[in-house]
């Protein structure tokens, strides 16, 4: 069976290397150099899948990356399943396992094909019309259906075991497309000395030369010339050749993304070899030689397996030595299909007829066909096909519908509706398309980037034109970059001048309303769907596209956009350029997420910041939580201890004796300079001028809009030096804001800003025994309450290490924050921990820190504030320096909205049932009996169990909350509604007596 | 990816080294308390949102960390010119002549 469809010795496959692979569990043989598509057709297999919407049997349409039909699932070994791979691009290797998609239970007998019979239900806009009502059907019926139908293949569910690489590259000239135009451009630029990268998406460079049989270049056959040209390029050290590499996107200023496929075609690859590599190329000049894509013809039954593009059939024959059928009919409106027919006939395929829609194809071509004994039907059309899983016959009749229809038997129908210049990358680069009225096609207009388009992509069809344009463009690009280049001449003989015409739906003597004439094969969009969309009022091609889904599948309409546009324009009754082409967007072909991610996976995708004390916490069994990029110890459970019990124990230790806490993640900024105090005055709400060196202050930072942005204790170390702390997550934002004002609003201030977050390890000691623990370890600082009172800072040493010692408290207890250089953080921590055993010291995590601060009503920026709270709203009006003329945000605090008396304000909440811990984020209402939707008057911002108080506590923002102390509010939850009394925000030790205890 | 010339480094660098920082030449009033509510609202919130040439601020965040100003075309995305913070707005006519 194999031999019948394979002409051994023809094409570029390696006949000495047979390759066994499977498709749907059946083993087949191909050769090294085959794609899955060529190898299957060599085995007589055309049926490779079912269509998306109607589950119609589908075969292989093309031979390149534009393929809409032949999508398969591929297993490249354990965990390496990939859906929707184009069989036309997939190179086979021994053991390759592939399977078809979108059918059940089998490819040949598929239950979903019932959709084909329900054709009328699924016409244009069927999603919008069908899934409207009843509402209850959404979750149970419609959504599962849409989700199942929303993709073709099945996504893999295992983590991707492969690695992916990425790299930057810079070159003088990037040439996209390794056909004759691209090769000529690379030769011209490379010989001129320019640094050139030439890329092509196929396994072999050569493009149309790989299947060229007629023309000669300088007396050589196309393939001989190609081999010589590639050898010449390989000899140039300044030229890089990349095959299996797709230019996926063309971005600003000649930045082009390339995806190189490295291992998918290999049976074995060495461990560590990346599967794909993303090249990020910045080129001085770009030459686009993407070629053109053959256009299908639109007629009833044009999607049956065995109906394929004529140029693709020619490629399979000449490049792979595969005859796609034994009995072919050719239908075309372009000369190129005649050449395919001639090659097929010469290779022994019975060509039943050439059906040309035009009345006047070239006499020369007709004469050649006659010599080969091929029946010619000039001015005829195709009106239908038959055959369930493979075409069996085609019905033809004269275009003027004036004669009888004939039925022609065949097993392949080769079609050609002309060629569409490939403008994708040019369009990515924001280049505007130009309408070529005489040839009825879009061409590149003015180039926005330093680039040129050559060859078929520029509308210059044919080998001689491609070589000449490529050479000129390569030379011109090199000259622009300062290289001397000499033009080359390529003597091309034996080439036909090819031309053609474009048709919409082919003329038919049958009822066009019943025709299933496909435009978009992958999304199952017919010509009728497009006309229906226009009838229903859609005029813009962008709307027609979205309503019909034409061109929206994974092939992005490479074979369907122009037919869709032509039919839509005809239906609208306006010229094509007025209806417009839809936008091309990167990537050019489907690209793996792995390629985009590259090395940026796991820890290289998002770093985990760890403090110097992190490893100690880990060894002590801490449970961690992420806080911005940091991981912080959340709580330290003893064996068998619940989180609740651990937090209660940690809280009790701080209140009764001493606890220690790793506060190293606090943002820290050193503000230095003769104008440092003035800078702080202008930035923070507080007055700083009178703060004496050695003293600290709670600083509040607003945005210019008057809303709270950040806070932290700020120590003045000297007249001209402030140690600013910020929230853990806000450090970078605060520094950015400081830099912004300093650089752009007040450049006259002599101030320098330095981020010191990671320079200091910070150990917070809290509890009545904290001073006792510190005293024997600290030198050079008098720890007495007179010399180092609450809100003071001093420099000295601890355990022999220099320290900035802050007397501050975020718990309400006597507290110290020991700052030591980061590299000594762990040693000092461990010393303190050991010395603290005498007092029963306990390490506590962020959860206990949160509880303790909430008991004192200290806010957490971003938890108790949300970007809409002013200082007064948060009960922090006292921080504002009343005599300061200005600070960031001050003017906004006087805006009318900020002075309204019903603003939401921060208050405490005590639930009527003291065991109820409210949910953070829960909404609050005044009247629980009002109808739904209720008027929400605020929400819970913080909520905890307080071990010290033996009950739950919460913070909340509530409309005019500060005027409502003592009132009862309600928190409706799914199971029941909770009542709570509004209270002050300080729940514990309101006299602040413990700060000096 | 755009190339951006930092006027402080005097070097053209890829866009990933920079961050956008809003419209340029919005000067904070010397004494905001002297502005009325409408003026202050405009200062805070009202922006040009130009289609075409747009004066805007950028920061060379992964380079010299300086804020600078730029004239950029929001249609083509491309930078027309960049200049140091504090310098006056260049006249578009002058730039067009030199282009
Ligand atoms: Zn810079």
TrEMBL record, chain A:
InterPro entries: 2Fe-2S-bd_N, BFD-like_2Fe2S-bd_dom_sf, FAD/NAD-bd_sf, GcvT/YgfZ/DmdA, GcvT/YgfZ_C, GcvT_C, GCVT_N, Sarcosine_oxidase_asu. It holds the Pfam family SO_alpha_A3. The keyword Oxidoreductase applies. Keywords: Oxidoreductase. It comes from Novosphingobium aerophilum. GO terms for molecular function: sarcosine oxidase activity. One of its GO terms (biological process) is tetrahydrofolate metabolic process. Residues 904-989 form the Aminomethyltransferase C-terminal domain. Residues 615-884 form the GCVT N-terminal domain. Residues 515-598 form the SoxA A3 domain. Belongs to the GcvT family. This is Sarcosine oxidase subunit alpha.
UniProtKB/TrEMBL annotation, chain B:
It comes from the Bacteria. GO terms for molecular function: sarcosine oxidase activity. Gene3D superfamilies: Folate-binding superfamily. One of its GO terms (biological process) is tetrahydrofolate metabolic process. This is Sarcosine oxidase subunit delta. It comes from Novosphingobium aerophilum. InterPro entries: SoxD, SoxD_sf.
């Amino acid at each position: 069976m194999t031999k019948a469809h394979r002409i051994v010795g023809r094409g570029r496959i390696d006949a000495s290397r047979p390759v066994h692979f499977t498709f749907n569990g059946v083993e087949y043989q191909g050769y090294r150099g085959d794609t899955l598509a060529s190898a299957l057709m060599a085995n007589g297999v055309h049926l490779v899948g079912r269509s998306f919407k109607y589950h119609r049997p589908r075969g292989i349409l093309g031979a390149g990356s534009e393929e809409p039909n032949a999508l398969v699932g591929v297993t490249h070994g354990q965990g390496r399943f990939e859906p929707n791979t184009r069989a036309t691009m997939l190179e086979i290797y021994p053991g390759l396992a592939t399977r078809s998609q979108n059918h059940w239970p089998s490819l040949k007998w598929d239950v979903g094909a019932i959709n084909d019979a329900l054709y009328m239900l699924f016409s244009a806009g069927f999603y919008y019309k069908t899934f409207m009502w009843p509402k209850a059907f959404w979750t149970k019926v419609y959504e599962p259906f849409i989700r199942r139908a929303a993709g073709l293949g099945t996504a893999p569910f295992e983590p991707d075991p492969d690695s992916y690489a990425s790299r930057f590259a810079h070159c003088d000239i990037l040439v996209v497309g390794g056909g004759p135009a691209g090769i000529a451009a690379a030769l011209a630029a490379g010989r001129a000395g320019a640094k050139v990268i030439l890329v092509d998406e196929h396994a072999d460079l050569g493009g149309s030369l790989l299947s060229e049989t007629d023309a000669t270049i300088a007396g050589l056959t196309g393939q001989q010339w190609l081999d010589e040209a590639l050898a010449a390029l390989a000899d140039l050290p300044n030229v890089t050749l990349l095959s299996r590499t797709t230019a996926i996107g063309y971005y600003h200023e000649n930045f082009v993304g390339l995806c190189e496929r490295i291992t998918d075609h290999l049976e074995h690859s060495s461990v560590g070899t990346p599967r794909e590599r993303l090249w990020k190329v910045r080129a001085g000049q770009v030459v686009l030689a993407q070629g053109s894509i053959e256009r299908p013809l639109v007629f009833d039954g044009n999607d049956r397996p065995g109906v394929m593009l004529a140029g693709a059939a020619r490629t399979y024959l000449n490049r792979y030595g595969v005859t796609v059928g034994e009995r072919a009919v050719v239908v075309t409106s372009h000369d190129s299909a005649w050449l395919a027919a001639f090659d097929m006939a010469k290779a022994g395929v019975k060509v039943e007829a050439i059906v040309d829609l035009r009345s006047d194809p070239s006499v020369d071509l007709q004469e050649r066909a006659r010599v080969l004994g091929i029946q010619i039907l000039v001015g005829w059309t195709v009106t239908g096909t038959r055959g369930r899983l493979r075409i069996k016959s085609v019905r033809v009749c004269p275009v003027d519908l004036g004669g009888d229809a004939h039925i022609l038997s065949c097993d392949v129908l080769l079609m050609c509706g002309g060629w569409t210049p490939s403008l994708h990358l040019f369009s990515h680069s924001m280049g505007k398309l130009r309408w070529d009225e005489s040839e009825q096609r879009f061409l590149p207009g003015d180039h926005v980037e330093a680039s040129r388009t050559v060859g078929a992509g520029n509308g210059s069809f044919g080998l001689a034109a491609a070589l000449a344009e490529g050479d000129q463009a390569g030379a011109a690009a090199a000259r622009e970059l300062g290289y001397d280049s000499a033009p080359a001449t390529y003597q091309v003989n034996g080439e036909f001048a090819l031309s053609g015409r474009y048709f919409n739906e082919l003329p038919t003597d049958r009822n066009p309303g019943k025709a299933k004439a496909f435009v978009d094969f992958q999304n199952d969009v017919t010509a009728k769907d497009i006309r229906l969309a226009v009838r229903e009022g859609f005029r813009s091609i962008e709307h027609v596209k979205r309503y019909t889904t034409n061109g929206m599948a994974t092939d992005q309409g490479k074979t369907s956009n122009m037919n869709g546009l032509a039919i839509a324009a005809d239906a609208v009754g306006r010229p094509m350029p007025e209806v417009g082409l839809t936008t091309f967007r990167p990537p050019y072909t489907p690209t793996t997420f792995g390629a985009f991610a590259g090395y940026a996976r796991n820890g290289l995708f998002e770093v985990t910041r760890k403090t110097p004390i992190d490893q100690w916490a880990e060894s002590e069994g801490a449970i961690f939580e992420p806080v911005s990029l940091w991981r912080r110890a959340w709580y330290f459970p003893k064996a068998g201890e619940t989180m609740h019990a651990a937090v209660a124990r940690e809280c009790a230790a701080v209140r009764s004796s001493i606890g220690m806490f790793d506060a190293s993640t606090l943002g820290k900024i050193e503000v230095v300079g003769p104008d440092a105090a003035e800078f702080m005055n202008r930035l923070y709400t507080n007055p700083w001028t009178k703060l004496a060196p050695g003293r600290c202050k709670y600083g509040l930072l607003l945005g210019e809009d008057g809303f709270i942005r950040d806070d932290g204790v700020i120590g003045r170390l000297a007249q001209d030096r402030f140690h600013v702390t910020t929230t853990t997550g806000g450090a970078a934002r605060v520094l950015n804001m400081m830099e912004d004002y300093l650089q752009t609003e007040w450049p006259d201030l002599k101030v320098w800003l330095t981020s010191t977050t990671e320079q200091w390890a910070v150990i917070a000691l809290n509890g009545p025994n904290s001073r006792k623990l510190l005293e024997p370890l600290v030198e050079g600082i008098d720890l007495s309450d007179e010399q180092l009172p609450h809100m003071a800072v001093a420099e000295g040493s601890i355990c022999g290490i220099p320290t900035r010692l802050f007397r501050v408290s975020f718990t309400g207890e006597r507290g110290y924050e020991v700052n030591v250089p980061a590299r000594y953080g762990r040693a000092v921590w461990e010393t303190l921990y050991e010395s603290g055993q005498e007092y029963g010291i306990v390490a506590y995590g962020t959860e206990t820190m949160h509880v303790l601060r909430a008991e004192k009503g200290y806010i957490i920026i971003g938890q108790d504030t949300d970007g809409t709270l002013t200082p007064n709203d948060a009960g922090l009006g006292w921080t504002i320096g009343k005599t300061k003329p200005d600070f960031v945000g001050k003017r906004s605090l006087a805006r009318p909205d900020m002075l309204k008396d019903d603003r939401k304000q921060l208050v405490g909440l005590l639930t009527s049932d003291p065991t109820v811990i409210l949910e953070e984020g829960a909404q609050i209402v005044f009247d629980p009996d009002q109808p739904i939707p209720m008027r929400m008057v605020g929400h819970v911002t913080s909520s905890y169990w307080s071990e010290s108080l033996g009950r739950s506590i919460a913070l909340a923002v509530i409309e005019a909350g500060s005027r409502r102390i003592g009132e009862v509010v309600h928190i409706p939850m799914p199971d029941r509604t909770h009542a709570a009394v509004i209270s002050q925000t300080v729940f514990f030790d309101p006299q602040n007596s413990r700060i000096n205890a | 990816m755009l190339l951006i010339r930092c006027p402080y480094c005097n070097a053209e660098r890829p866009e990933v080294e920079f961050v956008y920082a809003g419209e340029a030449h919005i000067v904070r009033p010397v004494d905001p308390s002297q502005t009325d509510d409408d003026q202050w609202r405009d200062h805070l919130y009202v922006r040009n949102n130009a289609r075409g040439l747009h004066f805007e601020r950028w920061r060379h965040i992964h380079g010299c960390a300086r804020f600078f100003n730029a004239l950029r075309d929001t249609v083509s995305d491309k930078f027309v010119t960049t200049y140091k913070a504090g310098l006056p707005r260049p006249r578009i006519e002058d730039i067009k002549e030199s282009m």
